[in-house]
Amino acid sequence: MNVLAANLSGTAETSYMSGFGNGFETEALPGALPIGRNSPQRCAYGLYAEQLSGSPFTAPRASNERSWLYRIRPSIAHWGELAPADAALWRSAPCREASLAPQPLRWDPLPIPDHALSFIEGIHSITTSGDVATQAGMGAHIYLATRSMVDEYLCNADAEMMIVPEQGTLRLCTEFGILDVAPAEIAVIPRGVKLRVELRGGPARGYLCENYGGAFTLPERGPIGANCLANPRDFLSPVAHYEDREVPSTLYLRWGGALWASRIGHSPLDVVAWHGNYAPYKYDLRRFSPVGPTLFDHADPSIFTVLTSPSETPGTANIDFVIFPDRWSVAENTFRPPWYHMNIMSEFMGLIYGQYDAKPEGFVPGGISLHNCMLPHGPDAGAFDAASAATLAPQRLTGTLAFMFETRFPQQVTAFAADTPARQRGYAAYGAPLLKRFDPTRP
Asked: Which of 70, 119, 251, 266 has the least CB density, counted as fewest CB within 10 Å?
């Protein structure tokens, strides 16, 4: 796929290419892409050729990820002397700051502050799991932003980043082009890609998943077959965009669980053309096509998996990104909300809008719940009573969008998350009102 974009070093309109994992090619100046040679002796326009690899060179073709970038300066010229920077409340695994009892946890939405806070400054880590150094596990965060990043850039060498807005639209100015992402959409920024985050119309709040492990990919459909769930055509990557700006700037590097800063004299978003399959993308969650039982019984929540980060163990994800969108419930003689269960996976859950059917009270947009490995959980008493007595006619759930970051690793709560007033101190006892109903005389 070839896309020609204008020089977007000024005010830009977004433009996208569709398809998940496709081999794209796009240029902002005609002829900037070399034909037949990835690294020619002399690139057009005096550009430099640089390869960005998201997988080992010897990875099988199906999982080999790389893109060739044709840029004004190579990345090595974007790094000056690195100095430690204040990471504020941003944490990486392993992080064992807090000692909370192993029980269900829930948080109210973090309030958006009235002082200036950039995307980087506003990352509030809630949980971490695994180990960033071994490239396994994840970090789950809330971001709060009240100002755009100006001549500031971030390169996360530790993790692929999934951004899930809950309030406010973000403009992600990346090396590959521009992505606008709003609530009900997600954006994924591959490991090592530089970006600047701007606000589009007001303060922003949302969720951020740092994926330390294998890159997110579409799950296998198995017996579902060729259709439904997330379709590749609905994933959008940006067309080429470049900035040729000589201005004092700061480039932040997340590496080894620490934040570093380098002072440079220009914008690092200087890629004039690129081709390959390692690139940022966005996806509208409202385009997800859910499936479910049509007669009786309750399917596992894995049928709602949008993207998965595979591990070395087949069938066991490093991370699953699962959503609970608008859908029909039609099964007969079946308890329809999520059933009571204990799970080997650890579930970090958020709500983008609406009401989650298993938690009608106390779980609101921008909030969080955490049900860790092998800790019991399920509907609260009100949801159980309503679902047990409901008329089982076809029911359409509308105006709702919840999600889970689910990982095979136990999630450790940060000191901030343990101490914040937003933590609902009494949540662990939500099962107490579920009274004994057993009567051996009444079948």
From this structure: 266
C-alpha distance from residue 11 to each of 24, 28, 442 (Å) = 24, 14, 72
d(CA 289, CA 266): 43
Specify the DSSP element, H or E, that contains 399: none
Query: Which helix H or strand E contains 389, and what residues bound it?
Result: helix 381-389
pTM (2 d.p.) = 0.95
Alpha-carbon span 427 to 158, nearest angstrom:
33
pLDDT tens per residue across span 341-350: 999 999 999 9
Q: Which helix (H) or strand (E) holds 372?
A: none
Q: Token digits for 133?
A: 């150094």
Residue-by-residue DSSP string for 13-76: ---EEE-SS--EEEESSTT-SPSS-SS-SS-GGG-EEEEEESS-TTS-GGG--EEEEEESS-GG
Q: Active-site residue 298, yes or no? A: yes
User: Which token pair is 89?
Assistant: 């409340």
d(CA 108, CA 239): 38
Task: Give the pLDDT confidence of 343-383 residue by residue, as tens digits.
Answer: 999 999 999 999 988 788 889 999 999 999 999 988 888 88
Lowest-pLDDT choice from 139-148, 204-213, 222-231, 380-389: 380-389
DSSP 227: S
Q: What would the two tokens of residue 117 be?
A: 């806070």
The closest alpha carbon to 242, from 3, 2, 12, 1, belongs to: 12
- Name the one residue in this structure whose structure tokens are 């496709």: 22
CA–CA separation, 271 vs 286, rounded Å? 31
Q: Which domains does the chain have, with CATH numbers?
A: 2-285 (2.60.120.10), 289-423 (2.60.120.10)
The catalytic position among 241, 298, 341, 371 is 298
Give how far Cα 161 sits from Cα of 64, 65, 151, 251, 357, Å. 19, 16, 21, 17, 28
Which residue in this structure is represented by tokens 């290419």? 17
Interior angle at CA 243, CA 242 and CA 248, nearest 5: 150
Residues belonging to the chain: 443
